[in-house]
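Progress report, Aim 2. The chain analyzed during this reporting quarter is listed below.
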Amino acid sequence: CTKCGQESEASSKLEDFYELELNIKGLKTLHDSLEDYLSLEELCGENQYFCESCKSRVDATRSIKLRTLPDFLNFQLKRCVFHPKTTTKKKLTSLFSFPGVLDMGQKLCEPSQLELVYDLTAVLIHKGTTVNSGHYVAHIKNERTGIWWEFDDEQVTKLGAHPFGEGSSTTKPVSNVEQPPSEQIHSLSNGNHTNNGQLKSSDNKNIYCGETFSSSDAYMLMYTRRHTKHNKKQCDELNNSGQLNSVDNSDFLPSHLLEEVKEINASYSNACEEYDQKKVKELDIIKERREEVRSILSEAPVPSFEEQFFWISTDWLRQWADNVTPLPLDNAPIQCCHGKVPVSKVGLIKRLSANAWSRLLSKYGGGPTLTDSDICINCLMEGANTIVRSDDYRSRREALREIAEDAHAGKTLAGTLYYVSKSWLSQWLRRKHVDFPCEADV
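Predicted structure tokens for the chain:
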């Protein structure tokens, strides 16, 4: 409040954060966006603030103050803007500059004795000109080697020492990025991105230290705080004690994260070991089954008709050979109503030697057992009778056909006569290639 000087009650509330949303419209550098984010906003006129102390609307100022900073600092660049008139969103494709090394010490509302120097470690990029379409990729730096990598779905590409690749070198500065005139700039271009090699400014208040980079597609910047001497000493002590056996010497993790990493690594190692054991077991089972199938099939042929053999369903035999865990032996589908093997199912059965049948039955069980003597004579006789009846019917039908044609033509017939349906008689005469009497004939 500009009248009483009191801060609002909301000012006493602190909120944790890991990400800052920065405007980039009309702004060219990360420094400009941070200044805009932390600048004072005048609340006056129709936008006056209601002061609880003054009990009235008064002119006031509003701003965001940074009291502490996290170890990992993310900047969300607001490339998506909304147009109220058209009610549509548009992507800002203006070039935006950001440093490789960021000093945030001057951005806190109160001076801090901590070193607040951050290194650029990742850049998230949206490739495309519209909000509703495009492709996302991530450029991430290996902190141990300093090498940048591009992660594009399953494609991983090495970029080198710069977040956008080495590119082709020129000596002209980026025209839309403001730099002090005393600083020499070298640019490396790569598509919509540039790497601007810049000498460190003599002004300690400038947050740009070392190289700066520019991109028209970057929408998130990730910075990692440099370790202080105290942190490095603590990391060395942990490493010497053997507690950082899975972490590189140059890296440092908080104790709770280190324990979580150890648990995840142990769980992963156990899962890999269980998988390897299961794989070996399954391969042994498959190998054993393959050898069993080959062995039994080699014994399956029957040397001569004088030796006893057994009938088996080819469908069951096929699934037995194809599956790791076969079902019990099932010969029911090849049986007739008399419990024997009919000649009509000769295409669904196979002969097995007594030795091969004994091995299958003893291991898988099931049944029923059908031997060489289980050919169904009843079904065989019925089939033979059917053939005889069909021959007899064909011969008798020729004589009946002559009588029917005469009757249909109106010729006088000798003997006792009977009335039949004329339409049925016409249909009966039109039937061809009939071997068996149908219900109408009966």
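Residues 81-226 form one domain. The longest helix spans residues 255-299. These observations will guide the mutagenesis work planned for the next reporting period.
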